[in-house]
Fold these 4 entries.
Entry 1:
Amino acid sequence: MFCTLNTHKVDMEKLLGGQIGLEDFIFAHVKGQRKEVEVFKSEEALGLTITDNGAGYAFIKRIKEGSVIDRIQVISVGDMIESINGQNLLGCRHYEVAKMLKDLPRGRTFTLKLTEPRKAFDMISQRSAGARPGSGPQLGTGRGTLRLRSRGPATVEELPSAFEEKAIEKVDDLLESYMGIRDTELAATMVELGRDKRNPDELAEALDERLGDFAFPDEFVFDVWGAIGDAKVGRY
């Protein structure tokens, strides 16, 4: 279903994304019990944050305390969302699932089919013992990271700068606030597109060209522009 870094627990904050450290542990979580739940949408916001593993599976990353979903004990963080009202979601990205949930009419009941991860775990990779001197590329700063790509080979790159790290964090927070998703790779792409733009209009144009499928609202783009600007001048 998904992998976590450096913990065997179902901790969606530790979900394996597009990069890993050179000395990380990786733990694999496999499918467990399937369940079907009827949910009455009494409020516009269900209180869910959705993420995915980049391979067609969307998961519940966070449940807001006191929300509609929080009151349904059978639904848990880490559950894979298989379908909404019979519509198969395998192959959908997290933002697509979040939009489907948001578009469901208030005051109606809908059906979720979920699969929870098994409680047991399999460790699929162990801490590297380290390369021998001269056996491969050397990292001069000690801040190397292995970046995994859907197309092309994995590469060792430098970690983000302090500005990039803080800007990505702030944009990721905005993604959760506006869209109910967290995606550091998407946030990093937005920071890359916005770092040299002179105003929000230029950022909006760049986002439309590169990420037009998201149809970001104007107020979100303006807040992203502000977040990047704050990070540039050290207002964290």
Entry 2:
Amino acid sequence: MGQDVLMSAAEDVADQFLRVTKQYLPHLARLCLISTFLEDGIRMWFQWNEQRDYIESTWNCGYFLATCFVLLNLLGQLGGCVLVLSRNFVQYACFGLFGIIALQTVAYSILWDLKFLMRNLALGGGLLLLLAESRSEGKSMFAGVPSMGESSPKQYMQLGGRVLLVLMFMTLLHLDASFFSILQNMVGTALIILVAIGFKTKLAALTLVVWLFAINVYFNAFWTVPAYRPMHDFLKYDFFQTTSVIGGLLLVVALGPGGVSMDEKKKEW
């Protein structure tokens, strides 16, 4: 009984938060989501020579192809960010950013590093949710026309996006036996399962946003490390990737779980 009251109170708080922020939340979600692409595109500009030399030496592909790789990453990421934020050609921007993720996964050998691979897949999940949102906006002009329900592609984009987003949290689980780590793992696992299956989705996603934001600021505080140290770039990369996943979760909060979820099925029961 007490748990039901506590859950009801938490859902009321989440609903109140959504009512207050509903006009701003999608914009904040998109900004967070593209932050890692924005940061990486700017980094390509300021570290042009280092990035080109790394690709040239790693793949032995020659000066021209290495330069093309850096240029493609710079223009593709910054251009995609501009299109997403301006709400123009969002679907094309998402496909372009998907391509950048795939290209970097191969070029930087992320494919063989499970932690970074899972984080890149989580980033792809955020882009899937952005695609789903753009489909919603594209159909908003027909809001008064009766329909047979959400289109299947959008439903499954939202499902795929939710499932991929939870991969980020799997990289944060700690395997030590301390009480705090066990508690964090149990609570975190419960929340990511709720988001994945779409049960109490908005409340679970909002809780994960708060949790992930706190972890991100505490563990990835790159601004406390001098810029000349390699750890600065590693923490900065992690910080913005995590911020992008926060953006994806905020889209889940703003849009809901979609048709393929327990929350939607409950409405039919």
Entry 3:
Amino acid sequence: MASSSDPWMEEYNEASKLADDISSMIADRGSLPQSGPEIMRHTSAIRRKITILGTRLDSLEALLSKIPPKSITNKELHKRQDMLSNLKSKAKQMAASFNMSNFANREDLLGQNKKAADDMSRVAGLDNQGIVGLQRQIMKEQDEGLEKLEETVLSTKHIALAVNEELTLHTRLIDDLEDHVDVTNFRLQLVQKTLAVLNKRTKGGCSCMCLLLSVVAIVILAVIVWLLIKYL
């Protein structure tokens, strides 16, 4: 029977607690908006904890392989192997829901592939304090990556807002231009109608003038003819 100060059991309890925390965060994720920075941060935190859980599982496997044969019974060894196997299966299921299905070659938050052999080499030869330090270093690196990702998202958001304001301004200018075009077109139609009326009046005035001149010419001719007849 393992003692309460058994390093493997302490590490296993921490890993099991972390898996429960991840399950709770996955359940809470359903109540968040489907898009936006809030769910992005929440999802990134879940993926980060899944990565940390993978590191803990690797350390558990390394610790289990280093247990002296006579320190625990075969029954206890098989029990721990089953416990570790069940926890790994749970971790794989959680990872699969976030497209981290290949847990042996899982990827971290920055999108870099990590092989199980690399993880094992990082924890090999480390005691519990060293493993905790390694986990803190991984968390620090991932926090820095999240901060950069958040800065990029905010920068992109500001650019999108600026583009949206620019598009709104151009749309308003186009609407104003269309209004001016409509007003100008209306005025042009009025001018065209006025010109048509003036043209008709001008044509009518010319006809009257021609008729009047024709009458005057006939009268003059008649007078000339009468004078010629009278004096001849």
Entry 4:
Amino acid sequence: MAATQHLPMESRTGRNNQRYGPQGERLVAGIVPLSTDKYYVLLIQSTKRSGWVLPKGGWETDEATAQDAAKREAWEEAGIICKISYDLGLIPERRRPDQLTTQAPKASYHFFEATVEKQETQWPEMHKRSRQWMTYTQARQALADRPELLDALDRCTMHR
């Protein structure tokens, strides 16, 4: 998503165009959005439960790459334009079976480290999510109950 193109002010919804892996797992793309000095990571509030998460969501069939999906999710959920700097790789599902639901089924996560180039004041999910810059230590504490998100954070190059 180039910064010059018009970005939609409406989030995609539903799973009609969702990609799935060979074991039926939902393919999810996400971003670890860092400040330019790499001292801070931007977390967003979860809409499903209390607490903080990294921007992430389903990789859809009309998106050529997981990177495209990750950048779209960063825009929709956090209102940020990012430049991807590293592929942090695939992260398997780490949630316990009792944490999985029909709304949050088993997933395979593909995370990317990115530098936030622009943080908009208005974005598609601004009315249902807040966002907050955190240090590595603060983010580790905020993501403590989400091992797959902690894994992505630990793989990034931000200052510890």
